[in-house]
Amino acid sequence: MMGRLVFVTGAAGYVGSHCVLEFLVNGYDVIVIDNLVNCVITDGNELPESLIRVQHLTGKKIKQFIDGDLRDSHLLDSIFANNDIDVVIHFAGLKAVGESIDKPLLYYDNNIIGTINLLKTMKKYKVDKLVFSSSSTVYGEPEQLPITEHFPTGQNCTNPYGRTKYMLEEIMKDVCRASPDWSIISLRYFNPVGAHFSGDIGEQPNGEPKNLMPYITQVAVGVRQELKVFGNDYKTSDGTCIRDYLHIEDLAVGHLKAIDKIYNNNFPGFHAINLGTGRGYTVLEVIRAFEVATGVKVPYKIVGRRPGDACAVYADARLAQEVLEWKATRGLQDMCSSAWKWQQKNPNGYRSKINIVQILLSKL
Ligand SMILES: NC(=O)c1ccc[n+]([C@@H]2O[C@H](COP(=O)([O-])OP(=O)(O)OC[C@H]3O[C@@H](n4cnc5c(N)ncnc54)[C@H](O)[C@@H]3O)[C@@H](O)[C@H]2O)c1
């Protein structure tokens, strides 16, 4: 295992940083590319703050950080020409559903063109092993529950972001059909939440959070006044939407299992695998769990439904167990307490440090 080189795209982000930590701890060498659109880098540093902290936590070094964009095919070419890459883990992408509705061309350009460049360069340099960040959004509003990997994808996607994931999966299937040596695992995440147990790395939403857990923690820490709960007239036990929340550290282990699998086994072809717990919680259940885990009250108000929100979404998680020998082990309490630890230690996310420095400098 020692010395295997993984090339990680979008590694400075929320999911990428937790996964890079897991890869380093488990003996992989890592080189990363990130164009810094959704992460923080401080003046004078060569690495984004998230990855500096990953190095501190692991005591290991990232072999190389490239500040660059996947749409720059010359850059990609030089990275593959100069490194003996074994496996690619592809996180880089834009992911804000609302923004994708307003700016579809930006999403298709960034997510689709960036990935096509990556696949073309991999083909040129005969690197044929890829783990891709997909999403349960490819299923749209499911007709049945729990959601298995055999459910139709694409036709129920409600936004361009989800469609980029669907289209990319279709492109990857075609690549595998044309070249049987390729091995691609597309991990369809359900709802990753929480933070590393240290509280040193976590999720830093840009602006107003669109997801439940960061919204809850920002209300709890006082950055926002109250949580908006979108709809309480769904057909669920308390009327609020159900989602399958998954601890980010479990998600990171899922990626480790996926690279171990494509590296160690003859596992050709395209494989879509759900990463979820298989259990759903309503919004009100999550709020209550957070209050129990942290002792902090979360003021909320019920507002109207948000367009495009499905009533209930949770995974059938058995395939991941069969194929990857992976199963989520951390529960909702753990998700809440780790998210809270991260938020308390970093009220402004990775920007805390910068703010303090700026404040000190402004006083000179
Ligand atoms: N977080 C979730 O809830 C979730 C759920 C399902 C799927 N996903 C997918 O997982 C992946 C990672 O998500 P995340 O939450 O860590 O997002 P993130 O925004 O925190 O991380 C993505 C990283 O990719 C970088 N990036 C974006 N476009 C790039 C480009 N063209 N070239 C180079 N770097 C680029 C950004 O700067 C960022 O650091 C994304 O593809 C996302 O769609 C995330």
Q: Nutshell version of this structure?
A:
The protein has 364 residues and is of the alpha/beta class. It has a single domain, classed as NAD(P)-binding Rossmann-like Domain (Rossmann fold, 3-Layer(aba) Sandwich).
Please characterize this protein's 3D structure.
This protein is α/β, with parallel strands linked by helices and 364 residues long. It has one domain (5-355): Rossmann fold (3-Layer(aba) Sandwich), CATH 3.40.50. The protein is 41% helix and 16% strand. It contains twelve helices and 14 strands. It has a seven-stranded parallel beta sheet with strand order 3-2-1-4-5-6-11, with helices on both faces. A three-stranded mixed beta sheet has the order 12-9-14. Helix 6 links the parallel strand 5 (129-135) and strand 6 (183-189). Helix 1 runs parallel beside helix 2 and helix 1 (14-25) crosses helix 8. The longest helix is centred in the first third of the chain and has 21 residues, at 104-124. The radius of gyration is 20 Å and the shape is globular. The chain starts with a strand and ends with a helix. Nicotinamide-adenine-dinucleotide binds at residues 9-10, 12-16, 33-39, 69-71, 91-95, 110, 114, 133, 135, 189, 192.
Which fold name fills CATH's third level, the topology? Rossmann fold
The helical percent reads 40-55%
The CATH architecture classification is 3-Layer(aba) Sandwich
Order of helices and strands: EHEHEHEHHEHEEHEEEHEEHEEHHH
**Can you count the helices?**
12
Strand content: 15-25%
CATH class: Alpha Beta
Low-pLDDT parts are: 354-364
Give the neighbour order of strands across the main sheet. 3-2-1-4-5-6-11
Total domain modules: 1
Question: Biggest sheet, open or closed, and with what strands and sense?
Answer: 7 strands, parallel
DSSP strand count: 14
Bound molecules: nicotinamide-adenine-dinucleotide
Rough outline: globular
Distance between the termini: 51 Å
As a whole number of angstroms, the C-alpha radius of gyration is: 20 Å
The overall pLDDT average reads 94
Class from helix and strand fractions: alpha/beta
User: CATH homologous superfamily - what is it?
Assistant: NAD(P)-binding Rossmann-like Domain
